[in-house]
Amino acid sequence: FAMPAQAVKDQRLLLDLGEVDSVAAARLNGHDLGIVWTKPARIDITSAVKAGENDLEITVVNLWPNRLGHDESLPKEKRLTETNIHKFSPTSPLLPSGLIGPVNLLLEKTAP
C-alpha cells in the first residue's frame, strides 16, 4: 500500500484487522509486528511504516476442523493431517476462519 508523506508525520498509525478468526501475524517492510488473537485486532505500525510504498504481509491460521474436513476428501497419502477422530467430513460446514476484515488504517494525532 502507498502512504502519503504527511500521514507518517506526528501520527500514531494502527492497522485494524477487523475480525480475525482466530490468530494473525503481521509483517510490514520486513519488520515483525507480532501476533493478534484478541479483540480489537489492532497492531501499532508506526515504527515500521514509511512514506511511499509499503509491503504488508498478514499470515492467518485456518481452524483445525476445517482442515480435517477437507483432508477427509483426499486419499490418505495426500492428507496433511493424521488423526483417529473422524467427526468432520467434506460436507461439514466450515467454521469462520482467517482474516475476515474489514482491514483499515487508523491515524491518531500525537501530542506536539
Please sum up the structure shown:
This protein has one helix at residues 64-71; strands at 2-3, 11-16, 19-21, 24-28, 31-36, 42-44, 52-53, 56-60, 98-101, 104-109. With 112 residues, it is mainly beta. A hairpin with a 2-residue loop joins strand 4 and strand 5.
| Spatial order of the strands forming the largest sheet | 6-2-10
Largest beta-sheet details? 3 strands, antiparallel
Specify the helix fraction band. under 10%
Residue runs with pLDDT of under 50 for 5 or more positions = none
**Shape designation:** elongated
Mean pLDDT: 92
Q: How much strand content do the residues show? A: 35-45%
Strand and helix order = EEEEEEEEHEE
Q: Would you report the number of β strands?
A: 10
The value of Rg in angstroms is 19 Å
- The first-to-last residue Cα distance is 27 Å
Derived structural class: mainly beta
- Tally of helical segments: 1
Descriptive report:
- The structure is a single chain.
- With 112 residues, this protein is mainly beta.
- It contains one helix and ten strands; from the N terminus they run E-E-E-E-E-E-E-E-H-E-E.
- The protein has one helix at residues 64-71; strands spanning 2-3, 11-16, 19-21, 24-28, 31-36, 42-44, 52-53, 56-60, 98-101, 104-109.
- The strands form four sheets. The protein has a three-stranded antiparallel sheet, with no helix packed on it. A three-stranded antiparallel sheet has the order 5-4-8, with no helix packed on it.
- The longest helix is centred in the middle third of the chain and has 8 residues, at 64-71.
- The mean pLDDT is 92.
